[in-house]
Write the structure tokens for this entry.
Amino acid sequence: MRIPCKFNVQVAGLGYLEETGNADIKENTKLELPVWLAGILSGIPIMSEEGEEVRLLDLLPPDAFNKKIINSIKSNSVNLSLRSVLPNFYSLAERWCFWFEDAAFVEIIQQMLKDRSVVMNDYSFNLNSTNSSNNDEISRFVHSLDNLEKEIFMVCVASHKDAKQWLNS
Amino acid sequence: MTFPKELQETFTSAEIVYLAENELIEVISNVSMNDKLSLISTELPKFRVMSTYKIPIWLAIILRKQNKITVPPPEWLNENYLANKYQEEVTNQTAFTQLPNNWLEVSKIFLKHFVQDLIDNEDVLLKLIQDLKEIRLVKLRKGLNNLNEINLGFNDLSLMEINEFRPFISRVMGNLAKFQKSLENEEGVENYDDAEDPGDDNAYDDDDDDDDLDNRNTSTGGRKDSTMAEANDDIDDEDMEMEDIVNEFEL
């Protein structure tokens, strides 16, 4: 997964990251870097020519965290197709929270996870019911789950299935 | 460990029944024995006809099959009591009623192995038990709206019922806690390498299995308060009184 970043200083010999053929990366170049690389590079402090300490690069908010999506999470997180936004939404969000310690953002994400997991749990009960209209709804919801939610949903289904089987045995 | 992941983090229903079978129950012997019988894990007392003894359920199942004993149902396993409990459950929307820690398992065992000794009609009992479980499940699902990353308390919920929700709840709470933790990292970006890998699914801390196990071992069939899930190791919820948790957890 790549996230956008902006270089604050000119770096010699890193041009290959940009894939433009230049030898160096110029100041203010915007570039998409893999998350792991961006995280490490953004932590490197550099002394600029004016004697100020700047970071080698700044992390820019990725598309998945733009205002429109955050607003739709706030208004109705359950109907949002998180998977089409980003299949690893929570993983990236957690990195992001880790880097920026944005309490408001954390709260939004947590609330979304809570709301969606309650619905996940409800749906996991009647996954095998024959009611077809309900099944459409469930499959639409399942397709909107991101990877983390999908895993939670799977364990949820498994445990309810086990309990049900035992009770009816 | 080579144990499958889903078996590591929780019990299966069958395992809980196995644990419940160690519970002692009262039985009435139909035969007399010359001497007591020493078994590896327990001791069968010297039986006399028409006297009551307390033996583990697993042993009672074997002896009942050979018609050597009759097993009177526990005082809570009858139509009247369960119907009352059901009413209580319906009227009291904010809490679960008190039932034995292993009521589901034990009643299931009774309906399977000791059917002849039941006083009430087995079908009626089965229906009552299923109704009770259903209504408690509905309450539990309502209560899930109050999920948070620190703690969650369910009073008077049996091990079987908790077990059904444990993998789900511990995962959700673990992930909520992960987000909370990312805020507490004061060093910011510099500390990046020390942090947990967010891709690691096992990063959350699930130590509640042991608590529940303790509950079972110390239980003598009475009611037990079961606490579930402590997901954040930074926040110590041991100090928290049960009352506080209950208040926080309004259904």
